[in-house]
Amino acid sequence: MTRRTDAQERAPISVTSLFAPVFAVVTLLHLTLLRLPYFWDEGGYYIPAAWDFFRLGTVIPVTTVRNAHPPLPSVVMAAWWKIFGFHILSTRLLMCVVTTFALLAVFKLARMFVGQAAAFAVLVLTAIYPVWFAQSTLAHADMFAAAFTLWALCFYADRPGWTLSRSHNSVGHNAVWVAVLFSLDCMAKETAIVIPAALFCFELMLLADRRPAVMARIHGDALPEDAERPHRLDWRWLLALVAPALVLVLWYVYHHWKTGFTFGNPEYLRYNATANMSVARVLSSLRHRMVHLTTHMNLFLPVIAAVVIFLLPSRTGKPILPKPALRMIAVLLVVQWVAFSVLGGALLTRYVLPAYPLLLMACVAAWQSRTRHWPLIAGLSLIAFGIGCEVNPPYPFAPEDNLAYRDMIVVHQHAIDFVTKRYPQATVLTAWPVLADLQRPELGYLKAPMKTAAVDNFSREELRKATVDPGAYDVVIVFSTKYDPPVGGLNLAGHSRDDDKRFYDWHADLLPAEAAAMLHGQVVWEEDRKGEWAAVITFPRGYDVRLRLPFRGMGGGRQL
């Protein structure tokens, strides 16, 4: 250890004292995003579920789909709204608080493994990594789950030989916190159970470390002085890691009692679990998840740097991380890679949100162990992540993986503003999530619900169905239901289109002019922001022009 590291260990910065500055920085970095209307799964489930609990006190939602998600995010949001009011800014600030708690856990865990200076680097890189940055103000369950997961790991890993610190809490103290935090974790999101389940198996795997000690005792030999202390199986750890599963089981028993479905409605269960069990689909998903965990959103820069720099000789002659900590991180990364290649039909990157700080921890540890210039690599990675927040990669991705979600919200908001001001009494044909935005004023797009008609998407097949009964709607809002690189540009995923159609509901949206021609209408407004587009189509039939109000214009968009 260097003298600087020893000094840091003697006088570590209080994690509590970091809350205010970290919260302030997180809030300032997201300042322009704090009043954006709710987006995608926020409006599709999480906000309506919390809204139902806020108004009706029911932990099982009644105005949106019942998919058996545990109720902790709804309870927390409703309690927050009781104190600070039900409005979008209030919710976004709550998510900044949750994100701050998660980042403090990242800092504490990293400091335990790599020291204080490197821990600050891990904290900053995590906060700016595009997937984490985008999720920092979105009211999804995943940031709640990530915060509880990372804090539970702080207590789980607080053991002799696992960290740089020489002082540790008692096993009983830590085990209680692990049980409580992982239980809250599972009540935030049910799939979080994979982490304590993996650690339960990890505890059993660590028993292999006892074999040299046992064999030496049998033969009367002495262990080498540098031999690791054999792992002792402690029932308190096993009980702590089993407790979250028991809590989750109780939730599902209650959900079944109330709804008749244990894991949500059959369609939800099919899409997110049972339909994902084919070998071909799992292999395809493993490939996608490997991209998410190694290269996605410029993550390739710190990962490649860690691999290349690892070829250099060690500065200290010691492992890059304490051996148990390195094993734990490796196990958790592999488990999340595999588990979330099966669970979740959409393969969203937010499902593996806790994996990113663990991966960055390992990268920073590798840099630090090989070169004194590791802060330069961290700085380059930070620049790459900042670029990734604004610049879309050359392959399809979920808009919520960077600030493309902001662009999608803005074009949807402008399209809805255009329609509500020009055609306030019209029946609007559109697809989800704009369909929900038009039906639920609490999502922040309009003041009163509009009449709607639904299509699943804007593929040729779906719009052909809409031509059967053209009198059922007056106006159409079409939009990009996913991000695709511009036609004619670089697209690294072009070779996987067949798998995407087969396994992930990929489809080609018709462009506004194509959709208008097919529906025999005309495009009267459209807008495109970095590949996220929306358009309004009207028809020379049946809609009383006396109901149309003058349109006063808005930022962005083009009235035709």
List key phrases describing it.
single chain, 560 residues, 55% helix, globular, disordered N terminus
Short description:
The chain is mainly α and 560 residues long. It contains 23 helices and 6 strands. Strands 2-1-3-5-4-6 form a 6-stranded mixed beta sheet.
Structure overview:
The protein is built from 23 helices and 6 strands. With 560 residues, the chain is mainly α. Strands 2-1-3-5-4-6 form a 6-stranded mixed sheet. The chain is globular. The termini are far apart.
Helices, strands, pairings?
Blueprint: H1 3-10, H2 19-29, H3 41-56, H4 72-84, H5 88-114, H6 116-128, H7 130-135, H8 141-156, H9 171-188, H10 194-205, H11 211-219, H12 235-259, H13 266-272, H14 279-294, H15 300-309, H16 323-342, H17 355-370, H18 374-390, H19 404-422, E1 427-430, H20 434-439, E2 451-454, H21 460-466, E3 475-479, H22 497-503, H23 512-519, E4 522-529, E5 532-538, E6 558-559
Parallel strand pairs: 1-2, 1-3
Antiparallel strand pairs: 3-5, 4-5, 4-6
Helix pairs in contact: 2-5, 3-4, 5-6, 5-8, 5-17, 6-17, 6-18, 8-9, 9-12, 10-12, 10-16, 14-16, 15-17, 16-17, 17-18
